[in-house]
Design brief:
This protein is of the alpha/beta class. The protein folds into two domains: 101 residues, no CATH class; 128 residues, no CATH class. Helices cover 39% and strands 25% of the residues. The chain is built from eight helices and ten strands. It has a four-stranded mixed beta sheet. It has a four-stranded mixed beta sheet with strand order 6-9-7-8. Strands 1-3 form a two-stranded parallel ribbon. Helix 1 crosses helix 4, helix 2 runs antiparallel to helix 3 and helix 6 runs parallel beside helix 8. The longest helix is centred in the first third of the chain and has 20 residues. The chain is globular.
């Protein structure tokens, strides 16, 4: 049985928040460079060039890539042989988030009451935390910093099974096209298919954790990812919605079994500043 101390988790999450805000993952940066090479629109190329330069400045100066440092969404994998000493895991993650946003001078963007008071909590907590229990003694924490512009373009549609693949493609492409420049393209398109309404939405967000350019293990869904990406990149939205060939860097699909009468499909978009970071304790 491995024991991980509460304060160790706090410190790790604190550093994770700053790292995610300042360091664009290498796969995303490679995707932006590939997009710049493929783009033909002068406005699109200029926008991509600024995105790439901005990421370099953020990493060098230790400044946030974007002023919207997002909702802190954590995906936590906990081994059955791992225990937390000194407090609850969720409390440690929230304390680390609180300290990280303050230490990194990251903008707090969370309001405590979503409808009436809408008063800022001033420390970007509470975080959104998803847990997975697995065999072993590992504790892995991944932070996905989710900006409001891209998150607001999320969509869910309860398709009929008869809608089939064509219905899925049409819905996803329609969602990205309608989003326009709001999610700060080029985007990464997360698609969740199956389960229930809530499962599909979580699958779509989980899909954003995959490396840009990775493919679904099932060849049928890999082909579907590639087909949707081709269609999305013919919408003309282009980088930052200014027009061009590259509206999305990638389409990632995740699936789950579902009811015989259902075909839930969810879409979650990540902006060009697709910020995430992982730590294993």
């Amino acid at each position: 049985m491995k024991t991980v101390a509460f304060n160790r988790i706090v410190d790790a999450v604190r550093d994770l928040c700053v790292r995610a805000a300042c360091d664009l993952p290498a796969d995303v940066l490679d995707g932006l460079n590939n997009a710049f090479a493929a783009e033909r629109s002068p406005q699109g190329r200029a926008a991509l060039s600024h995105c790439i330069d901005n990421a370099a400045i953020a990493a060098t100066e230790r400044m946030p890539i974007c002023q919207d440092t997002g909702t802190a969404v954590f995906f936590v994998t906990v081994g059955s042989e791992c225990r937390i000493s000194g407090g609850l895991l969720g409390d440690a993650i929230n304390e680390g988030c609180r300290q990280g946003y303050r230490r990194g001078f990251l903008r707090p963007s969370i309001v405590g009451d979503p409808l009436f008071d809408r008063k800022n909590t001033d420390d970007n907590t509470p975080a959104v935390i998803h847990y997975d229990l697995v065999h072993g003694d590992s504790l892995t924490i991944t932070l996905l910093s989710k900006g409001g512009g891209s998150e607001n373009m999320s969509a869910l549609r309860m398709l009929k099974p008869a809608d089939g693949k064509e219905g899925v493609v049409a819905f996803v492409v329609e969602t990205v096209a309608k989003a326009g420049g709001n999610p700060c393209p080029p985007v990464i398109v997360g698609v969740g298919i199956g389960g229930t309404a809530d499962t599909a939405s979580l699958l779509a967000k989980r899909a954003l954790l995959r490396n840009v350019g990775s493919h679904h293990h099932d060849a049928r869904f890999r082909e579907l990812e590639e087909e949707i990406l081709r269609h999305v990149n013919t919408t003309g939205n282009g980088p930052q919605g200014l027009g061009g060939l590259v509206t999305a860097l990638a389409v990632h699909i995740e699936t789950f079994p579902c009811h015989i009468a259902s075909l839930p499909v969810a879409v979650n978009l990540n902006c060009h500043a697709a910020r995430q970071a992982t730590v294993e304790l």
